[in-house]
Amino acid sequence: MGHTGRMRDWLVAGGLLRGTHGVLLVQNERRNGSLDWSTPGGVIDEGETLLEGLTREVQEETGLTVASWDHRAYEIEVDFVEREMFLRVEAHVAGSWAGDLVVDDPDGIVVDAGFVDETEAHARMVHAPRWVAEPFTTWLGAGVCSEPFKYVVRGDLAGGFTVDRV
């Protein structure tokens, strides 16, 4: 999966928070009005380290403040061929956090959040993109995934696309 300097490169981080009631998921409302679930997280801003940006994103989306991150659980690479865009995602497991769960996303994307058991987490991933659902559900079963998940997306995300794992 090579790409040129013309491409837009995005660095995104996802937070994996496990509590007594399960794993934390957020519901996202997309531009077209569709809803899907994912882990909290988002694009890392210029000047931030990945974990600084992840801590900020989790706090913005859920109201929870992560005090420490244990380890990287998995990495995702997605090459959106027609859009000339490359996405790299790192998902990290939170070591400790505090606060009350409050949904008040300044970006207006996250509309709901909650801790759910593994069965419910699998069910909520049904409408998530393959590059979100597959690594997350694999992590639920394995705990850590050493090899990156790599995908190529062809077509228009709004009108129809294919996703291949490479």
Structure description:
- The model has no long low-confidence stretch (mean pLDDT 93).
- It contains three helices and ten strands.
- The protein is an alpha+beta fold and 166 residues long.
- A hairpin with a 3-residue loop joins β9 and β10.
- The strands form two sheets. A six-stranded mixed beta sheet has the order 5-1-7-6-9-10, with helices on both faces. Strands 2, 3, 4 and 8 form a four-stranded antiparallel beta sheet that branches.
- The termini are close together.
Summary, kept brief:
The protein has three helices and ten strands; from the N terminus they run E-E-E-E-E-H-E-E-E-H-H-E-E. With 166 residues, the protein is an alpha+beta fold.
Head-to-tail CA distance between termini: 9 Å
Report the total helices: 3
Estimate percent helicity.
10-25%
**Low-confidence segments:** none
As a percent range, the share of strand residues is: over 45%
Features:
single chain, globular, 166 residues, 46% strand
Write the layout of secondary structure elements.
Elements: E1 8-16, E2 18-19, E3 22-29, E4 35-38, E5 41-43, H1 50-62, E6 65-80, E7 85-98, E8 110-116, H2 118-124, H3 130-142, E9 149-156, E10 160-165
Parallel strand pairs: 1-7, 6-9
Antiparallel strand pairs: 1-5, 2-3, 3-4, 3-8, 6-7, 9-10
